[in-house]
């Protein structure tokens, strides 16, 4: 079956998911995560994309990315894949594919859904039982948004910057938003978007504030 063309709007944030093939782990040790993040940073230098949030799970990755030109997202993801898969295969003496086909991406077309998706991404380790709190999980952008930790991968989104006039204000607001958690309806909306490939917007996800 022919692949459907991927339609990616410039300057509109995308929720991007890349999974291990057959749910295989794509990270096996600390340095694997570190190499992936370095490769992700390199991709932002090669292509005009902005990474706003991320979480690296054991067998998949969530990103929120805004491409600034046509083809920027696909180019960055291809560069990231080539760099990381080559490293991973060399390290573990394996060959062949690591990822489950093409990455998946979904447009985020409302302000409310942007916040809902960002919270979904950064709190994923807690829902998965990998950490008791989002700050306890090292491999996400939560500590950057919630505590101001330096992160060369992240470009703050204007919606996040609008949470307060100072970094401390924004960080406090973010900790409060993530601490409130997501409703069952919000989780269902996001999972439906991931399953069906349809974007979610103002009619589908509400921040509730």
Largest sheet: 4 strands, antiparallel
Number of helices: 8
Looking at CATH, the homologous superfamily is Transposase IS200-like
| Count of spatially separate domains | 1
- Enumerate the spans where pLDDT stays under 50 for 5 or more consecutive residues: 1-5, 202-209
> What is the CATH class name?
Alpha Beta
- Level-2 CATH architecture: 2-Layer Sandwich
Radius of gyration: 17 Å
Protein described:
The structure is a single chain. This protein has 209 residues and is an alpha+beta fold. The protein has a single domain (14-189), classed as Alpha-Beta Plaits (2-Layer Sandwich), CATH 3.30.70.1290. It has 8 helices and 4 strands; from the N terminus they run βαββαβαααααα. The chain has helices at residues 30-46, 72-91, 111-122, 124-127, 142-147, 158-161, 167-180, 184-196; strands at residues 14-19, 49-56, 60-67, 104-107. Strands 2-3-1-4 form a 4-stranded antiparallel beta sheet. A hairpin with a 3-residue loop joins strand 2 and strand 3. Helix 1 packs antiparallel against helix 2. The radius of gyration is 17 Å and the shape is globular. Residues 1-5 and 202-209 have low confidence and may be disordered.
